[in-house]
Amino acid sequence: MTVIVSVAGISQLKTGKLRAKSADKGQVVTIGELVANSGAQMRVFDLGRRIEEIPVDFFARFEALAEPYPVPYLKQAWLGILSWNPDEPGQHNIWFLKLPLDEQNILQPGPRDAFLQHWLQVAAAPKKQHGEAPCSYKPDANRMAYFHALALRALGQDATQYYSTARAYLSGDMGWDKWQQLGLQGLAEVVARLDEDHNSLLVQNALPHMPKVPRNALLGFLESQQPGQALTTVINDTLSKVVAEGADAADLAAFARALSQSVNADQRILLLQALLQHPAKHSIELLAALGSRCWRDLRGNLLLNYLECLARNDQGEGAFNALVGDLLSLPGMRPHFMAVLGSPERSDELVAAVEKLFSMVRTGGNGALQ
After folding, report:
1. Is residue 206 included in any domain, yes or no?
2. Are residues 179 and 107 in the same domain?
């Protein structure tokens, strides 16, 4: 699939205004203050497990070390920060940041402060080469496409030209096999605007007919939505068809991601139970998707079954340690994990994997578990 990520209407904010206004307001200590002192407004998005907007008032408390980050991913807050100055129409600034967190998911201020210092230096000497900002990163193509789809909507801007092309494809007018030039951006915008232009119905009608590549891309974007019952049913029915035809781990992971926020909790549970009995249940690709997107449903025996599969995963001890560490960084997961470890139904293999992990923690090998 062609990677087409539109940044229509999104360009770099001039740093001269940052310098002029921040100097008047005194010491800048947070990203929010840096943006506000430039005269700009901002929207903040989480780009870790899913892509969704974060309230600006929460972000201010997070920056003040008053609240933990609710959805850490790999011990970091993955952020997309969109800012714009109302006095400069069409000029927008985007920062993609990974901010390190401590064991309680509180912001570690040092790296954030280094980022701020970098941009204050840029503002003071905009013609000088300053290198890449600390904590910055480039999201993968799928994250980038969906973020831009949300950003366009947040700014009240029209969808790109790729939106109409994607809708034409999903209507079947182009032929289901004519997807090679279909852009990720168009599919992302359809999903981001699922409540517009009858797009939910369009996706429902298209999904059973789509080839693997565009179908799995579409399913991946749906992880950031909450599919209603009608769409949930279509996704489940399509999964049954794909499994009957010989689904691989990538297929199963895509369907799990798409249904991870379905409004039907019972169907989410049934899906996880089925996936953890599938022949691909030891695939790290599938297990990573379940742990990172479906964690809220991993409780009791379902969590035990997940950990049993993880203890036997096809990538070994390192993958087990990484995914367990990531799970335990999530708020509320530790009590469920410890309860499962006390289950008489746990296997010797799981016990051995956990003991090795805890032994590594005691010697300082994994701060996420401390």
Report:
1. yes
2. no
Length of the chain: 370
CB-based burial, 212-241: b 16+ in 10 Å, e otherwise: eebbbbbbbbbbbbebeeebbebbbebbee
Task: Show pLDDT as tens, one digit a residue, over the chain (370 residues).
Answer: 544 343 333 333 333 344 434 434 456 689 999 999 888 999 999 999 999 999 999 999 999 999 999 999 999 999 999 998 888 777 788 999 999 999 999 999 999 999 999 988 887 777 788 788 899 999 999 999 999 999 999 888 899 999 999 999 999 999 999 998 888 999 999 999 999 999 999 999 999 999 999 999 999 999 999 999 999 999 999 999 999 999 999 999 999 999 999 999 999 999 999 999 999 999 999 999 999 999 999 999 999 999 999 999 999 999 999 999 999 999 999 999 999 988 899 999 999 999 998 888 777 655 444 4
Domain contains 90: yes
CATH of the domain at 184: 1.25.10
Domain assignment of residue 82, given as a range: 15-124
On whether both 102 and 186 belong to a single domain, the answer is no
Q: How far apart are CA 52 and CA 44, in angstroms?
A: 9
